[in-house]
Amino acid sequence: MKRVFLIVLDSFGVGAMPDAEAFGDAGTNTLAAVVKSSFFSRTPCLPTLAKLGLFQIDGVRVGPEEAGGAIGAYARMKEASMGKDTTIGHWEIAGVRSRQPLPVYPDGFPEEVLKPFMERTGRGILCNAPYSGTAVIEDYGEEHMRTGKLIVYTSADSVFQIAAHEDTVPLEELYADCRIAREILTGPHGVGRVIARPFKGQKGSFVRTAGRHDFSLKPPGVTMLRQLKEAGRDVIAVGKIYDIFAGDGITEHVYTGGNEEGMARLSQYLKKDFEGLCFVNLVDFDMLYGHRRDVEGYAKALYAFDEWLPGFLKEMKQEDLLMITADHGCDPSYAATTDHTREYTPFLMYGNGVKAGSLGTRSSFADIGASVLYYFGIKPAFTAESML
User: What's the mean per-residue pLDDT of the chain?
Assistant: First the structure.
C-alpha cells in the first residue's frame, strides 16, 4: 500500500533566489539565520535533518554535513511563480505555476471593494491598512467592541483579513462575513485568501483564538491533489492545506492548532491504512517565529521537529515515502520587513527505493507534485519532472 507523507515546514527557506532583490529580499537566508542562533551554539544542530541531507543541498554553506553521507535524496527548489506567499508556494508544489502575482494592497483596499462589503455585512470597518495581526487588535480592538465595526487589514501577502472579538461578532457571523468578502474579491481583486481572525480578551490582553479560518481561491489549474483524487487515491490534508486549496482534490482533512498538533496528527495517520497522500503544513515556523522575527523561537521549533522525526522514520512502512519541503522563506533575522522572503526551499526525500544523494537545483516546486504522481503511476497534467 503506497503512501506519501509530504510535510511543508512553512517558511523554511535556504537562501535568497537570484531575483530576491526585486522582491526587496537580497541576502536573506532563513536556514542560515536559524543555524547561527545562540540556541544552536549550545545544542546539536538538527542532526536528523542533517542525516537526510539538509546541509548538503546546493548553496547551503552552514551547518554540519552528515559525516557518513546522507541517507536521503536532497535538492534545492527554485520557485517559478511570481510570488513569495503561502498560496502561490503550495499551489506550485502541487503543479500550478502563477505567472502573475496575486494582488496586494499596500495602501489598503479600494472603495469598490469596501462599499459592497459594508452594505452586505451591515457593519462598518476599521483600519484598512497593512498591519501586524497582534498589533491591529491592540490598536483597534476596543473601538471594534464599542462600535461593532469589523477590523479589516492586510499584509504584504495577498490577503483580506477580518479580525473580530468573539463576544462582539460570533464566529459563524464572522465566517459569513468572510464568505461575503470572498464573493466580492474576484477578478482583478482576487486575493489569495480571505482570513477570519477571531480574538478574545480585553484591552491590553487581547489574544487571537484558534477559530482562524481561511477562505481561498481555487487553484487556477489541475493539481496533483485533483489527479490523485480522480485516480481513486486518498488525499488527506492536515493543518491549513484544505483552506489553501479551497478543498479542491481533498478527500479528508483535519485542522490543527500548531506544529505540535500537526506532528501528532502525522503520527496518527502513519498508523492508519490508506493509499495516497498525506499533505501537512506546520505553520508555527512562519506564523509564530518568522513574521515575528524571533530567531531563537524558530530555532527551538526546528529542533523540536528534528527531535520528533526519528520516531516517524522508524515507524514508516515498506512502501512509505517521506518528503519534506517549504513554501517560501521568512528570514527571522531580516530587519527590513516582517514579510516573507524570496528564497529557495529545501527538499528532502526518504524511503525504500529512494536513491540517496543530490538531486541538484530544480527549476520549479512543481517537480515535487510530479514526483508524488510518478510514485502512483499517474502522468502529471502539468509541466514538471519527477525526482524519482
Answer: 96
